[in-house]
Amino acid sequence: MEKITIAIDGFSSTGKSTLAKQLAKELEYVYVDTGAMYRAVAFFAMQNQLIGADFFEKEELIKVLPAIKLEFRFNADLGFAEMYLNGENVEKPIRTIEVSNFVSRVAEVSEVRAKLVEQQQEMGTNKAIVMDGRDIGTVVFPNAELKIFMTASAETRAQRRFDELQQKGDDVSYEDVLKNVVERDYIDTHREDSPLVIADDAIEIDNSYLTREEQFAAVLELVNDVVKTA
User: Fold this and answer.
1) Could you tell me what percentage of the chain is helix, strand and coil, using 3-state DSSP and rounding each to the nearest 5?
2) What's the whole-model pTM score?
3) Coil/strand/helix, residue 192
């Protein structure tokens, strides 16, 4: 069967990673969560006092970028790869609301984006890859055979994120999560370098009222259609 590149872009908390993992497992493709990469850099910045509520030492972060080593390591028990930062598993701490509050600001930095995009493109050299993020279909893989753009109302996405964080035991309020979602939307769509936009040839999916199963079935059908003609 012909191997293709699948690029999944969209707003935060639209379930991009869940869909990408489902597809990668079904197709036996490599899955890459680019959001985890940006979250790891933001977590590094937080750990090293380079970013906070009222400051961002952007130039210092740029200087230490060579010291940031990112890699995905497959976890057989979980069925997907986890994010490692300088040899340490950071899959859990990078998913907190605290990291969410800073990740879009870190992702605005052109030097950060250049470093990560280069790594992402290397990962997709042999195709057979599913990658999700904000600029996969527009910047990382502009020639991807299938591009999906996912969206949903801010309220729906905030509720999903709130439920997810509560299940993990995080002490957060729905209002704070909604505020974070709206702020990230604004930053992601208004940054100068690679803003979040829908690629001209992307297929838009509003999953506000779709179950995960319905969404997966619809996208898998799109994949099969593309593979047949590839």
Assistant:
1) 50, 20, 30
2) 0.84
3) coil
- Three-state SS for 67-82 is HCCEEEEEECCCCEEE
Top-confidence residue, 77 or 23: 23
Query: What pLDDT sits at residue 75?
Result: 85
CA 178, 185, 105: angle at the middle one, nearest 5? 105
Q: Are 96 and 166 in contact (CB under 8 A)?
A: no
Q: Is 105 exposed, middle or buried (0-12, 13-18, 19+ CB in 10 A)?
A: middle
Closest by CA position to 107, among listed 165, 184, 175: 184
- Among all chains, which residue has been given the structure tokens 């505020």? 179
Q: Which tens digit of pLDDT belongs to each residue from 4-18?
A: 999 999 999 999 999
In angstroms, rounded to a whole number, what is the distance separating the alpha carbons of residues 163 and 167?
Answer: 6
Q: Classify residue 216 as exposed, middle or buried by CB count within 10 Å of its CB (0-12, 13-18, 19+).
A: middle
Q: Region 148-177: what's the mean pLDDT?
A: 94
The DSSP line for 5-55 is EEEEEESTTSSHHHHHHHHHHHHT-EEEEHHHHHHHHHHHHHHTTSEETTE
Q: What is the pLDDT of residues 55-102, one digit of tens each?
A: 999 999 999 999 999 998 888 888 778 999 999 999 999 999 999 999
Q: How far apart are CA 136 and CA 199, in angstroms?
A: 9
Instruction: Report yes or no: 2 and 128 within 8 Å, Cβ to Cβ.
Output: no
Yes or no: say if 148 and 207 are a contact pair by the CB < 8 Å rule. no
